[in-house]
Amino acid sequence: MVESFASNWDMLNTILLVIVVGAFALASLRLIKGPSYADRFVAIDMMTGLVVAISALTALATGRNEFLDVAFALALIAFVATAAFAAFLERKVQLTKREKAQSQAQTPVAGSIQEATQ
Amino acid sequence: MIEIASFLVKVVGVAFLLVATIGMLRFEDTLQRMHAATKAGTLGAGLVLVGTMMNKGNLDATLTAGLTLLFLILTIPVASHLLARAAYVSGARLAGIGDDDALRGVLDRPETSIEDELTKLDLERRALPEGDATPAPLVADPVLAELGEADFASLKTVITPERVRFAAVGDAAPQLARRAAGLAARTALPLTAVVAVDTGYVDATQNSAETLRLIRDKVSHWLPDLRSISDDMGVPIDLVYEEGDAEALMAGVGDVREFLVLPTDGWADHGIGIETPHATKEPDGLLRVAGMHPGPVMYAVDEQKAGPVAVRFDGSYDIWRGLDLAIVEGLWTCNELRIFGFVDGPSRREIERRAEEAKMAVRFFAPDLATREGAMFPDEAIDGAVAVIVSELPRPLRTRWYGVFWQDKIAPDWRGDVLIWT
Hints:
The complex is a heterodimer of chains A (118) and B (422). Chain A has helices spanning 2-6, 9-33, 37-62, 66-105, 113-117. Chain A has 118 residues and is mainly alpha-helical. Chain A has one domain: Helix Hairpins (Orthogonal Bundle), CATH 1.10.287. Chain B has 422 residues and is α/β, with parallel strands linked by helices. The longest helix of chain B has 31 residues, at 59-89. The interface between A and B is large, with 68 and 69 residues.
């Protein structure tokens, strides 16, 4: 039995790979559904983790080490991306708060969010 | 053997990833989803990496995968913390937390989530009647609302200031008073002096009562000068003394018809020179006042001079009304307008027409002229100019940025009046 496994390592890796890709598809459902911004960012964060795993498994399935470098770069970028998303969200909250205060101060409607962001 | 071990590790890793994803799909709120995604997700990805390392076995792959693993373990807690904080602050739904919110009072959390808030604002905006699609300006400006931006030609009969106000600050107050009285006399408008004391600064000093006493001493020292200037120039000056948020006090109640005259330097600590650990000594608030006051603002130098006026033209409404104010009210004894920037045909003819009416010469300077040290104006345009009209102040809004005085960023070594109406 060990022999039959051993002869099929590549195929088994590919099966694992397909499962993780399936998980990736599931995670993207959360990205699409939201409902909050934070949910989408969590989904993106998770998806990067999945892609790291996908890259590692691809490296095994294809036998090419370059895919490990891809995994490394993705892990690096994911951190910066998540931090930036979090900062963006907090900033958006502040700006919306300010705009709301303005729209209440002067009726009927204050300037657009684009203006507030400028 | 190692293959089997590595395969098992990978299978466990993939199982964790799958469970994490399903958790992320099925949990109720953001933080629960994050709990699934980050913990199980990291473990899953980490195990897959370990499995890969075992399988590959060579140094190259082990190093890369090991570094990736290390980096994941180092960064994911930080990233998750940031994201969780942002989720909480953005008002994302927290299921079943009830009265158990340990962060209440620690972090600001709005009642409604940011998505609902944005949708509401968006709906409000769309509810505007057709044809009124342009959003209302952020600063309430009744005159602008009546007019519409395109109506430049009729502007000069509409917006004219009805009052002049100046900020009496520090030892230079009498000189500025003389300038402001001159302007008031020229335009025949009533003049108010506001003596503001920055309580923010006072509170930041160690002995607040003593600081306040010093400031009042200083103010009372030059106050009689104001009276004699008022008599000299034949312009009555209303005096207002106030303590509080100096920027707001200087900016006033927000009347678009109020002409605000500010010094180019100095702050509402009135130059008593006590340093505080919490407030800078530099008068940084001064340049922010222009943005807070809806009417025209002039940063005036001590001496009234005659000469050309340079304009940084950008076609904006702000520049046009600044230009109008200068021409109609005759703020400066100006024989020449120097327009720097891109001017389209109609604007060019309009400027020429108005200058001719006011008996001024006009020179246009191409927008691609080189400026020195990132200044706003090229030397050719500003040489000898007594004043500039701009639609924005040089950034950052600091009176001294690493020792460079803010007017040096308009043009190096240039000193003069700055008129801005935003």
